[in-house]
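Hi R.,

Here's the chain you asked about this morning:
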Amino acid sequence: MPVPAHHRLVQPPPIDCPPYGRDLFAGQVVLVTGGGTGMGFAMARAFAQGGATVAVVGRSLDKAEPAAARLAAEHGVETLGLSCDVRHADQVTDAFDAVEQRFGPVSLLANNAGANFPIVAEAISANAWYAVTRIAIDGTFLCSTEFARRRIARGEGGAIINNSAQYIWTGFPGDAHSAAAKTAQATMTKAMARDWAPHGIRVNAVAAGFFPHPTTTSGDSPEAIAPLQNMIPAGRTGSIHEFGWLSAMLCSSIFDGITGQIILQDGGESLRRSLMMPDYVPPRERANGPWGWQ
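And the predicted structure, written out as tokens:
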């Protein structure tokens, strides 16, 4: 049913009004994987709004370079677009080297690179499984350990933020590949936080709920968003700029005391279970695909 008109919807500030000053990340260099579009770009923009120097990393320069140029033009910060497949250790090393040669040491890392698509588990081929899991698991591991080794060698701390998902605790229909990968990423977050705490390196993750944007499977049209808004207690889906802000702030001095945490940002969607709920329809029997939409 539609959200009743008398329900109060709490909206985030406009995209050009971040909840911190323009110098929050002054002097910091952040590397953002998968930063050319969607939620990765929201992360990169949030760091840029706080004055960070931003390296936008993607598998293709076709997205990374325009995104970097846009951030530089809109926020007046130094940026660099890089091509890197995070599944390959040598490319990760080369990307860090390139950023350091241009701007100096990377002090912040945002692991966003990922892939996903709706498919029931028995239909997932080995290649499809690896396409999703290796980016999120191997990519997060390779980028994080490369970052940590360099920070430890310099005797300096730093911060890592990982883009996880709200379904790491429950799974999600038609999403066995991503659910497994994001859950591994979350436990990796906690393990790395323990390993690197003595070196002043903090590691956290945001378990993101529904943040529609043009590059998601369902898109961000009003028709696609409406059914999602109706099932979320907050009465709305998330705006990717508020995801970006939370991700960036968790890497800032504001939250220096937080590490090893998985912060759930889902508008209360995980609280939705009740005695009276719609009938369960198995994923393969849903008219619009395993996720309920295509």
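The chain has a mean pLDDT of 89.

Let me know if you need anything else.
M.
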